[in-house]
Amino acid sequence: MVASWIAFIGFGLGILGTNNGLLEPLQDWLRASVVGDPDSANTIASMLRLNPWIVIIVAVVIGAVWLWRGRPAAYQGGWSWQTTGMALGVIGIVAWPLSSMTGRMYGLSVTEPAYNLMRLFTLGHIDAIGWALFMWLGIPIGSYIAARRAGEFKWRAPGPTRLLQALGGGMVMGIGAAIAGGCTVGHSLTGVSILSLTSIVASLSILIGVWSASLALFRT
Known about the structure:
Elements: H1 2-20, H2 24-30, H3 44-48, H4 52-69, H5 81-100, H6 111-123, H7 131-150, H8 160-180, H9 184-191, H10 197-218
């Protein structure tokens, strides 16, 4: 959808404006207070003083029960959420070694690639070209291939009001992602998988924000 591209542009502009623009002082102020030791890994395992594998085993058991009790469902004729989740998990695992081979010691992320894309095209920062940027370029290509194979691809352009909403919503997402240091991909998919407390708090905050916005906008 055209609105999705507009939202991504707003997302990148929001990140750029927060990291290098007018909102940079606000970000610095919000990040001034640090909870925990900034020089060590603050995870659930370290907080509970448990072996990380104990926490992982418990999480796997809970997840397995949830998957077993869940009802198979498809969205618009696509993959079920179980299959999609498994595929994302495999991609998330493979991303770590592939990223580390280039000196980038992190897994999947969308906030960083979006920021690098904006830095490259608006500020001319050549150092923005890297693994994360190429990872993002693969997202629309993979989405296009999947949509074509499923017979669901078509260009859709909503009205001006919807496009402005997409741009504004994308900018708000970018501002939040920049301040939080990540989005649902960097925090919820990657950070939570390594038991990061920061990512868990960020993911819970994202859920609360989405539910609140849905209730306010759609009364659902």
